[in-house]
Design brief:
Length: 149
């Protein structure tokens, strides 16, 4: 791409708009009862009434590690020679250098996912809330996102 007078002038004209778009709001953060430190959080935070009154709630860590059904740390231990998960992976999927966690992720589908039935079950046993993992720590979205097929 060659640099022309027109492209330089267009870039210079866009600079003030970019600066304005990136500038922070002069209002700043709203003050609340909790300061950004642990002692303030411990002494000033109040759990919502609905949460304090709930006797049972469920949190699901459902993701690609569910494919081999070997535990939450499968993505780490499948690479550690001598670990039972490494041996399981090697026997079931092949050597981790050829078929690793990136390949397990592609096997994880939600073809039998029935959230309505699950929530009905949870309610039946008295659960008052349910939380599901949306994004795994390895940046895998655990929903139908535009980033992961």
């Amino acid at each position: 791409m060659s640099l022309t007078r027109r492209s330089v002038l267009a870039g210079m004209a866009a600079l003030p708009m970019a600066r304005a778009a990136l500038a922070q709001s002069p209002m700043g953060l709203a003050r609340g009862p909790v300061e950004p430190n642990w002692p303030s959080l411990v002494s000033n935070y109040r759990y919502p009434d609905w949460f304090r009154d709930a006797k049972l709630g469920l949190w699901a860590h459902w993701g690609p590690q569910s494919v081999p059904e070997q535990g939450d740390w499968y993505g780490r231990f499948l690479y550690m020679q001598g670990h039972p998960m490494y041996e399981h992976h090697r026997r079931t999927y092949g050597h981790p250098t050829v078929s690793g966690m990136k390949d397990i992720q592609n096997l994880w589908t939600a073809d039998r996912w029935d959230p309505e039935a699950l929530i009905a079950r949870y309610k039946k046993v008295g659960a008052r809330y349910f939380m599901a993992l949306a994004n795994h720590h390895d940046n895998l979205d655990c929903y139908d996102s535009r980033y992961h097929a």
